[in-house]
Amino acid sequence: MFNIATVQKPAAQALQQDGLSLLSPDDLRSTLQLTAPDWASGWQGLTDSWNRLPPDAHLKDGGHYRKRRHACFVQDLAAATLTQTSHRAHWQPTDYNALHGGFERWFDPIEPAVAQAPAWTGLLAQLGKLFASVQPVAQWYVEAHQFRIDTAGGVGRPTPEGAHRDGVNFVVVLMVARQGVKGGETRVFDANGPQGVRFVMQQPLTALLLDDARVIHETTPIFPADGAAVPGFRDTLVLTYRATGFQSP
User: Fold this and answer.
1) Helix, strand or coil, per DSSP, at residue 195
2) For 7-20, how does the pLDDT look when each residue is reduced to its tens digit (9 = 90+)?
3) CA 165, 167, 247 angle in degrees (round to 5)?
């Protein structure tokens, strides 16, 4: 299933055959047709918002290493619309998240200037169209999570719940920034077997696309880079696409 050829296939083909696709920044832009200069400059203008994420108040391991914001959208494929919903809690069953599942987690909303920006909505919509070419659906229920994991306490855990699935159709992990850290190896494994791949996402706009029914994933802890004078951080955008509505109690 998994080998180096996986990351060299077109994204739709890789998702169909392997359940995952790892895209370089150039491949992401070309695959999603985000090649206009105004998209690149527009996206760059949004990245500063990761500096304004509030702390995640729901970490059950007692840590203070994660900051985040959250928003939800509905994409109508036939009408070619992407509509932000009223703010809602994030909920997962314990079957998928034994550590943080089973209760409603309210996070501060993604800033309106970010969630309504053409660069943001264009990215989400084009990803939805790609996923619909793999699994045809009428609508996607999309959850967006801005994450910052830092090393101010010595260690930061991108996935404190461990290797997991999310209970959706597709998952996207987009690298936004990585500064002054080491570690943070992303691992993706066949949900029904021992095969897997491991890699470190380094460049901004590197994207990992996952078929959530077929693979499990995790990212190992991050630590301050050798010789780093100040705490480092790892910023990502995580998107989930689900065909049958938002998960709820």
Assistant:
1) coil
2) 568 999 999 999 99
3) 145
pLDDT digits (tens, 9 = 90+) for 139-155: 999 999 999 999 999 99
pLDDT one-digit tens code per residue, 188-222: 999 888 888 999 999 999 999 999 999 999 999 99
| Tokens of residue 80, six digits | 């070619």
Alpha carbon of residue 204 to chain centroid:
13
How does DSSP classify residue 248?
-
- Give the CATH number of the domain where residue 177 resides: 2.60.120.620
> Are 237 and 176 contacting, i.e. CB atoms less than 8 angstroms apart?
yes
Closest CA to 2 of 211, 171, 169, 222: 211
Q: What is the amino acid identity at position 230? A: V
| The two three-digit tokens of residue 221, written as one number | 């802890």
Task: State both tokens at 157.
Answer: 């855990």
Q: Which domain holds residue 117?
A: 4-47+67-242
Q: How far apart are CA 48 and CA 195, in angstroms?
A: 37
Q: Is residue 97, in this structure, part of any structural domain at all? A: yes
Domain presence at residue 57? no
Residue whose token pair is 């200037």: 113
Domain count, the chain: 1
Cα 26 from chain centroid (whole Å): 18
pLDDT band at 91 (very low <50, low <70, confident <90, very high): confident
To the nearest whole percent, how much of the chain has pLDDT over 70?
A: 93
- Does residue 215 lie within any of the structural domains? yes
